[in-house]
Every structure is written in C-alpha cells, then in structure tokens.
## 1
Amino acid sequence: MYYEKAADTEGHLLFVRYTKEDTAYYHAMPHYHSSIEIFIGSKGHFLVYVGGEKRQLSEGDIAFADGHTPHTCGVMDADEDYEAFVIVASAAYFDKKKIQTDRIAPFTTKKPGYEKILDFVRMMYDLKETMNHEMRLGFVNILLGMLNLHCKAENSVQTKTTQLTVEIMRYIDTSYTENITLSSLSKKFGYESTYLSRVFNRCAGVNLREYINRTRYSATQKLLSEHPGLSVADASHACGFQSPKTYYRAAKSIRDEENNNF
C-alpha cells in the first residue's frame, strides 16, 4: 500500500482502457489518494479491491473508490480476453458539497443504466486526446451524476475504520524515518494494538509492517535516483531501515509480490 502522489496533483485526470492486446497482464499495487477512482468492467474479468473488500468485475459491473479509500485492481487470468476502463479524477473537477461521492456504492453489479454509462465512457475515451478543460469538467460531472443515479448506496460508505486506516497511512508517509512500531501507533491513535492491526490489515489489504517497509523502500529508491553517488546503506538508513539487511529483505519481498499474480 502506498500514497500515490501523482494522483493528487492539481487537475489530475487519468483515463485508461486496459485490454489483453494492450496489456497482457496488469495489476496495480495497493494505494490510496484523495482523488476518486472508477472501474468499469466491459469484457472478461477484472479484480478490484476497495476498502477491505475484494470482488471480481464482470461485464456490466462497476467499482468506485472514494477519496482516501485504499484500493487496487488487476487481471486474474493473463490468457483471458478482457477490457476495463479506469478513471482517476481529482476533486478539482467536481464540487464535493454538491456531488455526494460517499453515497456511491463501492461495488455495483450490472443493472439497468449500465449500457448508457459504458456508451458515454467509450464516446469520451475516443475524444480523450482532444479533451480541453471544459470537456474534462463535463466528463467527470456527468459520469458522477450517472453513478449517483445508478450506483447509489443507501448510506455513506465511508466508515470510521477506513478513516482510521488512512490517518495511519498519512502518519507513516510523513514519519517513516522514525522508529514506528505497532505499540507506538497504538499509543498515538489511542486504540488497542490488536484492534489497530486488525483494522489496518482488513482495510489496507497489507499488514502494518509491510506498509511501513513499502513506504521506506519507495523513499530509498527515490533518494538513490536523486543522488546516484549515495550508497544503498546510507540511503536506506536515512529512510528508516535499521540495516542494509532489512532493506534488502524488504526489497526482495516487494519484488516477489510484484512478480506474482494479484
């Protein structure tokens, strides 16, 4: 799990179509950001994880990750013909006070209205390269309006456990150089350590130690790229690893996971 900073740049809009022809095998690492993320299944199967729940999208299914909700997605079978659209849009494109994104269900199985949503997404995807700012505003707001109409949940889907998980992530993202332990997190956030660990594991999809290691590993890689003359030992230590051995162990674990199926 990691914080995807690029998704939170001003006016960020990512509009991607994943197919077997373009990407034989694809999976994203678990992450979160303040932008919303929408997954629309069109063909085959596409696995999506949102806020502690994992489901396989088939044709006609839609998944939605509201801002600051841990999520990820991927392909289960590289041999299967599939198609899925993924849209990531920053809050700069819509008014959160007027559009209740927290009322959009995280998962919606195929129902009447899906064809209109998919037709609209396909049309806008064909225009993707020529969309100006006004078209992007229109695209995001119309799509969210459709989701509020056809994929609306009865109550807010944001939970206290999800909010707690994101608060912990934010703290780790800014304090990874410190000696962070389950005990120190328990004291800081005021929850019993077993409960804190259980909530984080369920909502984030990874355990606390793995998330901390991922954050430190990403920071180490960034530091090494910015300072080529820096040794791995010095870079990893500056990013919170206690020794080069713990860094290499974390690096191997992360690479092994990235090479495995989602």
Note: Helices lie at 114-126, 133-150, 160-175, 182-189, 193-204, 208-226, 232-238, 244-259.
## 2
Amino acid sequence: MVTFTLNGETRQVDVEPDMPLLWVLRDELKMTGTKFGCGVAACGACTVHLNGEPVRSCQTWIEDVEGAEVTTIEGVDNKAAQAIQAAWVELQVPQCGYCQSGQIMQASALLIETPKPSDDDIDAAMESNLCRCASYARIRKAIHRAADIMEA
C-alpha cells in the first residue's frame, strides 16, 4: 500500500511497488490527463509535479512517491499554471494537443522557478518535451506571454 497526496487529496493504492506512477494515475486512479508518450522519459508527455518539481511519471515508480505530493494537469492551479493556460488559449498553441499537458506542466514549473525567462531559459527547460506537431515557436511565445500575464 502506497499513500501519497494527489492534487491535494490523500490517496492510497495497492499496486506493485515498481509500477510506474503514470500507470497508477491512468489505470488505477482514472486520471487520464497525463499522457503516455514513449515510456522511457524522453518525450515529456507524462510530466507531473512531484513535490513541486517536474518529473516523468513513466519512469517514477509508485514506491518513490510514498508520502509525497503529486500534481497532475487536472490539479495544477497556481498562478504560473493559470497564466500558462491562458497564454496557450490566447496564442492557440496546440495543434493535435497530445503533448500539451506535459508541456504545460513543464512550463509552469519553469515560470515558478524563473518568472521572466529568456529564450535560452525556455529552450533549456523545455528541450526534453517533444511536440510531434513542432509547435515549439508558439510554445516559446506563449511562455513569454504567460510571464507577462503573471507580471501584470
């Protein structure tokens, strides 16, 4: 039995200790906003926050979240995430949308750490979040826009 906080709510799951957090979220807890992309932590589609830090849930074992706080796209609701989501809509960032929950989770963590990021800051933070549609220029522009929204 593993106990952790998910989006502000205490949850317990009885699964194998080496089950990836991604599968616990999607299959056991029916939280399907976090996406499966590659399974090897190379694409970022499965990004969630673990104790406030972005991690790849496909390579985070459930036993490693015992007592921790996990935030998914369904539960992220801080100033940075709200600004990111507003900028994403305003600038029509997504095309297919598959990678967007991971992109938003990574970008909101960036803005919490670096409220006014440079292009280099954005590129470094976002480089391991892949987008099949190659909307990288819109993603960068939306992160800058979100920083402006937060500053206002």
Note: Residues 79-151 form a domain with the DNA polymerase; domain 1 fold (CATH 1.10.150.120).
